[in-house]
Amino acid sequence: MAVYTDVSFEELESFLAGYNIGAPLTFKGIAEGVENSNYYLQTTKGAFILTLYEKRVRTEDLPFFLGLLEHLAARGIHCPLPVRNLAGAQSVILGGRTAALFTFLNGVSLRRPEAGHCAAAGAALAKMHAAGKGFALTRKNALGHDGWDELVQACLPRADEVEPGLADLIATAHREITANWPSGLPSGVIHADLFPDNVLFMGAEVSGLIDFYFACNDAFAYDLAVMLNAWCFEPDVAFNVTKSKSLIAAYAKQRPLTAAEREAIPTLARGSALRFLLTRLYDWLNHDPHALVRPKDPRDYSRRLRFHRKVRGVGEYGL
Amino acid sequence: MAVYTDVSFEELESFLAGYNIGAPLTFKGIAEGVENSNYYLQTTKGAFILTLYEKRVRTEDLPFFLGLLEHLAARGIHCPLPVRNLAGAQSVILGGRTAALFTFLNGVSLRRPEAGHCAAAGAALAKMHAAGKGFALTRKNALGHDGWDELVQACLPRADEVEPGLADLIATAHREITANWPSGLPSGVIHADLFPDNVLFMGAEVSGLIDFYFACNDAFAYDLAVMLNAWCFEPDVAFNVTKSKSLIAAYAKQRPLTAAEREAIPTLARGSALRFLLTRLYDWLNHDPHALVRPKDPRDYSRRLRFHRKVRGVGEYGL
Q1: Is domain A9-103 given the CATH code 3.30.200.20 in the classification?
Q2: Within chain A, which residue ranges are assigned CATH 3.90.1200.10?
Q3: Could you state a single Gene Ontology molecular function term (chains A, B) (predicted)?
Q4: Chain B interface with A: residues with Cβ < 8 Å
Q5: Which CATH superfamily, name and number, covers B115-317?
Q6: Beta carbons within 10 angstroms of residue A157's beta carbon
Q7: Is the ipTM beyond the 0.85 threshold?
Q8: How confident is the model at residue A32 (pLDDT cuts 50, 70, 90)?
Q9: Do B42 and A106 make contact, defined as CB atoms within 8 angstroms?
């Protein structure tokens, strides 16, 4: 968690001259996300987040991300709304980076969400899926199942350095998941990274969804599977079926799952565990010791994947 | 700039139960300072900074720092006010660290202050010096002139790796400064680190002084000399006498300088340049590549020191 690109107050002042958002009262770098530099900005007219896109977000994807947030916000989803400048642009260049300004959302992200929070977040996901309908742009899931092969090949040779037997787990699971991957499931715009960090709460209510930089077009149920992994395991990686049941039921109350989706859940859960295992493992093996961010332990996800491979039916997820 | 100690919302909630400051609306790690972990907290009752003290601040010094802020705030200085908890304590343990909660100050720090800002900051320093009178606790300047010898010895062997001739500059300047160091100057509580980062502005006015973790008892004029180094050089390390003149005049308008103080300014300016050169050089030479903070370039201060050594009289500082 760090600020990579330093923005002086003087640079901020020139930048703000292009916007109609009042005079600055407070401007502070915040430790939010791992991919970009973020600043909290309070002005006489409100609170904002200024994001500078670092190398991991491709600027050619920004029209999708920024357009999506505008689309969702217009349909009642509490997400950061890109603030257009006086020229109507959603992004500008600042400090050598592409930068965008967003409305600030109150709320806090939870480290240990309870079953009630899982339900609220599941319902919020379903509402987001519905609100994404009609969005004109599309984006392929760069980390979707047909992109895993490259990561698998990059990680296998050194996987056992991290955990004995990990290479075998990855190769076997990847083969099984690919053989069973569902097709033709209801699809649309998904968040693809809705971890508890990315859901803001005010008390028991969801006050915001943030960090849409993995959003893409894919199966809705895959998004739900990501959440099963991110929300329904305890710190010791024990699966909590009460949380999973609450999450899925609250989602399905907004958008009932089809029979094909229900059947696909175990495979999707394995697949999304593999996806996060692979990216964490890759970052772990290729970590620059001078980087300002410490990589996350991939073993949290090898343990999830092992759990899902033992699941014998959707009942184990509370369905 | 980073957050070292991670505080979950759940930990925050337990912590807040000990305070009467309302319910949390926003809680974000901020990239403030280099020594501690800081969080921005907004509640239904106001905005606060939560600070967790990392290893560089000695917890036995906290009663001095926190007591000083309370003392200064009570005398009208805009500085962070430690918020006492329901038990009356100024600090508690959180996430394995000693932590304190402060009122939040609006305002922004400037990267390139103009002469008018230098004047406003100089006046603010003089007011702080006056307000510090009567504070019951004292703290020795751990980085004062009688503590430099140790740093000099630690840095000399490898100084020339950073800049050819640096070891000679340090040894010679240290000898000269020690020989000429003034005694008996008006003294009291000084900030000792009043860089532009630590002064908040709202437009042309100072809205706050922050980061008192080097505060100690020493000569007032030494504090002014720190500011000459921190505020009156351009990015290319050219000395700006207009800024220096503005800063000193505005300070002296609040508290006239004695003849001995005026005469001592060149030596104090050399001394404070040496102090920051030594600590930056030490951090540069002993930098842990895994640390989340990148060290500052010590050469900014060797160049300042070289400037001050050529000064032939206080007129060159605009006195």
Answers
A1: yes
A2: 115-317
A3: kinase activity
A4: 1-3, 8-12, 23-32, 40, 42, 104, 106-112, 202-203, 289-290, 292
A5: Aminoglycoside phosphotransferase (APH), C-terminal lobe (3.90.1200.10)
A6: 10
A7: no
A8: confident
A9: yes
